[in-house]
Amino acid sequence: MFDNLSDKLDSALHVLKGHGQITEVNVAETLKEVRRALVDADVNYKIAKEFTNTVKEKALGQDVLTALKPGQLMVKLVKDELTDLMGGEAAGVNLSGDPSVILMSGLQGSGKTTFSGKLANYLKNKKTKKPLLVACDVYRPAAINQLHVVGEQLGVEVFSDEGNQDPVAISKAAIAHAKENGHNVVIIDTAGRLAVDEAMMTEISNIHTAIEPHETLFVVDSMTGQDAVNTAKAFNDRLDFDGVILTKLDGDTRGGAAISIKSVVNKPIKFIGTGEKMDAIDVFYPSRMADRILG
Ligand code: GDP
């Protein structure tokens, strides 16, 4: 994960760590390298620039030049700032409802169905939760089937109504079914399309308005770099979701989405997907991610 970015940041900071004496000039040079590494990792230029400016101000404020171990102080400042940029604290999912309704959104192929299964499994393993998965992709029978396969594999019930073309009606029926059958979490997997379009946005916002979910999650493929951030922005403008799920972080991802999504949409990343298997799900901890990025 983020190997390229980690290597570049390591070499940027290495120069500084190796220096006998630290000067304002080599701090500036180091931060320029850091900025370049972030931009290469698909972090938006403006965000990268603000990032290094903040680190620079903090470095000067903390008298980095006269610090006992200036190199280490710089690494710490970069790490703290990365943590802040990615949201600071880990953010939980609202499970206060009975049932708690969780609406999944995102483009086709982002990993929505897979993540719906992973989340159901994650909650089921907590013992106090009995999730119900709901198949609301009314356009693709294969997607409904895919959710049934996942549900069967996990021992989680899947609600679907093949032939019904109304995702609002299906969602409402599923919530009623959950109440009758003691499910305390309802996870609604919706239809995605290959690109943001009006029909998809209208459909997902109609479901959102009609069922008032406790939690609306936006799922995005981290491999898509800056597009991931742009798509997040387009969804957020219409849907006002509560959190982001960043999938496929096990792939050769550059890191830009993880680093910049929070500051662009002001919504936290809540979970990450790290593989195709149902247990490849992790809570997103900004500080742990910053540690991983900086090695
Ligand atoms: P949907 O169209 O949004 O429902 O996307 P799917 O859940 O069908 O996922 C699309 C593809 O991405 C499938 O082949 C999944 O196995 C794969 N996928 C989903 N999440 C991850 C992940 O975290 N890591 C990897 N490597 N593959 C994933």
UniProtKB/TrEMBL annotation:
KW Amino-acid biosynthesis (keyword) present: no
EC number(s) stated in the UniProt entry for this protein: 3.6.5.4
Similarity-based family: Belongs to the GTP-binding SRP family. SRP54 subfamily.
Assembly, per entry: Part of the signal recognition particle protein translocation system, which is composed of SRP and FtsY.
Location in the cell: Cytoplasm
Binding site for GTP: 106-113, 189-193, 247-250
Name of protein: Signal recognition particle protein
Domain comment, as recorded: Composed of three domains: the N-terminal N domain, which is responsible for interactions with the ribosome, the central G domain, which binds GTP, and the C-terminal M domain, which binds the RNA and the signal sequence of the RNC.
Main EC class the enzyme belongs to: hydrolase
Catalyses which reaction(s): GTP + H2O = GDP + phosphate + H(+)
GO cellular component: signal recognition particle
UniProt keyword annotations, A-Z: Cytoplasm, GTP-binding, Hydrolase, Nucleotide-binding, Ribonucleoprotein, RNA-binding, Signal recognition particle
SRP54-type proteins GTP-binding domain boundaries: 268-281
GO MF annotation: an example: 7S RNA binding
Job description of the protein: Involved in targeting and insertion of nascent membrane proteins into the cytoplasmic membrane. Binds to the hydrophobic signal sequence of the ribosome-nascent chain (RNC) as it emerges from the ribosomes. The SRP-RNC complex is then targeted to the cytoplasmic membrane where it interacts with the SRP receptor FtsY.
Any coiled-coil regions, as ranges: none
Species of origin: Zunongwangia profunda (strain DSM 18752 / CCTCC AB 206139 / SM-A87) (Wangia profunda)
Full-length numbering of the shown residues: 1 to 295 of 442
Superkingdom assignment: Bacteria
